[in-house]
Amino acid sequence: MHSAQELVSHVEALASLPTVYQRIREQLDSPDGSVLEVARLVSADPALTVRLLRLVNSALYGYGGQVDTVNRAVQILGLQQVHDLVLAMSVSAVFSGIQPERMEMGRFWRGSVMCALAARTIAQGCGLPSAERLFVIGLLADLGHLVMYQTVPALAAEAQDCADRGEEALHMAEQRIVGCDYAEVGATLMDHWRLPPFFAEVVGAQIVPRLGGDHSFDAAILHVASALVQADRRGEASSAAAERIAPSVWSQLNMSPESLSRIREEAELNLAAYVSLFFPSLKMR
Asked: What InterPro entries does this protein map onto (predicted)?
């Protein structure tokens, strides 16, 4: 049996995020954090500059080509959003060379982007000011599986097979077969990267949102978004995903199960565009 800490520690490629992200994080954490310094840091990385400007001018933000400098982008978005977006793009860079056994990366990132889009849509519908941050957390939510398939692929695949046969929920199969589940591993990775605590708390509670403490509402959003992705992976109708979500979660979010099909349609409509924004070299099947 394996612990989440053991699995994360054994993935050497995940040891750290790019230096540019670390420096932007330092600016965010500093009481003297500077928009100009963050713009300078981003501008020093040509590839990151291009991707950030493409993203700001995309439908996600709606500036339609009007933002043509990093300085302007940082001023519009603010330090927090730039931090989150650079984090998302850095994750793409960290995992670019990883090809886990028994995992098709195009399919994996398709699900991650769908989770991000769904989480953002749900958060917007709930009136949360942190809707854009939920997009980034949705993008990172399933990283635990990437670690598991990199370190214990046979065990991870066995747990998935059990879940696909309907024998037990995936996280329960993983706890029994591997010793930990994908949410635990993902949260441990967030801590390993020294991300703001919010990330680990929400990712770690996505299976049982009430365990998220002060962030249980955000965890409930991620829980619903993840159920939608699971239905997409299985080729199921949205109603099947809705049935797996506890009534208490719908009540907490003040949502109806019927709303899941609309959220799914919106995510699917934007999916290809956002995969190309965050993972431009990725080929999806």
From this structure: HDOD (IPR013976), RNase_Y/CdgJ (IPR052340)
Residue of 88 and 13 predicted with greater confidence = 88
Is 129 in contact with 155 (CB distance < 8 Å)?
A: no
Dist CA 121 CA 254 (whole Å): 14
User: Would you give the DSSP letter of residue 30?
Assistant: S
Confidence of residue 97 (pLDDT cuts 50, 70, 90): low
- Contact call for residues 146 and 127 (beta carbons, < 8 A): no
What lies within 8 Å, CB to CB, of 68 at 6+ separation is 53
Tell me the per-residue pLDDT of 176-225, one tens digit each, with 9 for 90 and over.
Answer: 999 999 999 999 999 988 888 999 999 999 999 999 999 999 999 999 99
CA distance 202 to 198: 6
pLDDT in tens, 25-72: 888 888 887 888 888 998 988 888 888 888 888 877 777 778 888 888
Of the candidates 186, 188, 254, 190, the one whose C-alpha atom is nearest the C-alpha of residue 226 is: 186
Q: Minimal CA–CA distance to 209: which of 145, 141, 131? A: 141
Tokens 């439908």 map to which residue? 59
**Cα–Cα distance measured from residue 108 to residue 98, given in angstroms and rounded to the nearest whole number:** 12
Contact yes or no for 143/183 (Cβ under 8 A): no
C-alpha dihedral over 227, 9, 212, 174, to 10 degrees? 40
Mean pLDDT, the chain, whole residue set: 88
pLDDT(13) > 60: no
Task: List, in order of start, the domains of the chain with CATH numbers.
Answer: 4-278 (1.10.3210.10)
